[in-house]
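Inverse folding, one chain.
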C-alpha cells in the first residue's frame, strides 16, 4: 500500500466500530512534515483537477462531499483549498444554517435532498443533515426519541443517493479544544476575521464535551461501506489539506471517470475549413 493509500486507510472510520475521539490526536501528522505534505498536496490537487475534468465530461454520476466540524474547525478553509482544483462549472457548494421557517415546516432531509449534486457534479456540503444529530441533539431541539431514529434514516437516505449514482464521502475536521480557543481568539483579534466571530461560538464552546459525544455517535453509527466517514487531523492546515485532497482524489479515481467517446457519425481525418 502506498503512503497515501495508507493515510486514507488510517483515517477511515471502519463501519461498525465505535469512535473514541479522546484517543485520536488532532495534531497527528501521520509521519508527514509540513514541507513534504505541501508538495504531496500539490500533486493531489493536480490529480483532482484531471479527475474532475473527466467526471464533468462523463456526466453520469455525482460526488457528494460532506464537511462537518466544530466552529473554527476549518470548513471554509477546506472548501477554499479544494475548490482551487476544480473548474467551478461542475462543482457546487451548499451551506446549511439554522433552518428557515419553510425548512422547519418540512422534514430535516427536505432541504438537503433539494441541493444534492446532479450528474457530473461534485457537491460540497458546508455542514449538512448531520447538524440534525449534532446541534439539534446537544440543544434538545427535538426529543431523544426523535433524533435517535435519525442515524438509521440518514443511512437509508445515503443508501438511496448511492443507489442512484452519488458517491458520498464524509470528512469530520477534528481540532483540539485548545486549537479552537486559539482560532476563536484570532477571529476576535483580527479585523479581517472578526465578522466571523460570534458570542454564540463561545456558548457552543462551553458545550464541547456534549458535541464530542454527539460526533462520536454520528461517526460510529453512520460510517458505512458506501458512505464512509474520515476523521481528519485538522490542527495543522497542511495535514488537513493533504488528507482531504488525497482521500477525495482516491475516491474519485476509484470511480474511473472517463471522457465520453466521440459521436459515431464523425469521420476520421476531418479538416475543419
Ligand atoms: P456557520 O457555519 O458559522 O455559518 O453557522 C451556521 C449555524 O447554523 C451553526 O451554528 C449551526 O449549528 C447552525 N445550524 C445548522 N444546521 C442546523 C439545524 N438543522 N438546526 C439548528 N441549527 C443549525
Ligand atoms: Mg460559525
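Residues assigned per position:
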Amino acid at each position: 500500500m502506498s503512503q497515501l493509500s495508507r493515510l486514507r486507510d488510517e483515517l477511515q472510520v471502519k463501519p461498525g466500530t465505535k469512535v473514541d475521539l479522546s484517543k485520536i490526536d488532532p495534531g497527528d501528522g501521520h509521519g508527514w512534515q509540513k514541507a513534504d505534505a505541501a508538495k504531496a498536496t500539490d500533486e493531489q490537487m493536480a490529480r483532482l483537477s484531471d479527475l474532475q475534468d473527466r467526471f464533468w465530461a462523463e456526466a453520469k454520476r455525482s460526488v457528494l462531499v460532506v464537511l462537518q466540524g466544530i466552529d473554527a474547525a476549518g470548513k471554509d478553509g477546506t472548501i477554499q483549498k479544494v475548490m482551487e482544483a476544480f473548474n467551478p462549472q461542475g462543482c457546487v457548494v451548499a451551506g446549511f444554517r439554522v433552518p428557515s421557517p419553510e425548512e422547519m415546516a418540512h422534514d430535516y432531509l427536505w432541504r438537503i435532498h433539494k441541493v444534492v449534486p446532479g450528474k457530473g457534479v461534485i457537491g460540497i456540503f458546508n455542514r449538512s443533515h448531520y447538524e440534525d444529530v449534532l446541534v439539534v441533539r446537544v440543544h434538545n431541539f427535538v426529543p431523544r426519541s426523535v433524533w435517535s431514529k435519525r442515524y438509521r434514516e440518514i443511512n437509508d437516505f445515503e443508501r438511496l443517493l448511492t443507489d442512484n449514482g452519488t458517491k458520498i464521502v464524509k470528512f469530520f475536521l477534528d481540532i483540539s479544544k485548545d486549537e479552537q480557543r486559539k482560532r476563536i481568539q484570532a477571529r476576535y483579534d483580527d479585523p479581517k476575521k472578526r465578522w466571523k466571530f460570534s458570542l454564540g461560538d463561545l456558548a457552543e464552546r462551553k458545550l464541547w464535551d456534549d458535541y464530542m459525544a454527539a460526533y462520536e455517535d454520528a461517526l460510529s453509527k453512520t460510517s458505512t461501506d458506501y458512505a464512509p466517514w474520515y476523521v481528519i487531523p485538522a490542527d495543522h492546515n497542511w495535514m488537513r489539506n493533504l488528507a482531504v485532497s488525497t482521500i477525495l482524489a482516491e475516491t474519485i479515481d476509484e470511480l474511473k471517470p472517463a471522457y465520453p467517446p466521440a459521436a459515431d457519425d464523425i469521420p476520421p481525418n476531418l479538416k475543419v475549413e
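Residues 34-58 form the longest helix (25 residues). The chain has one domain: 3-186+195-253.
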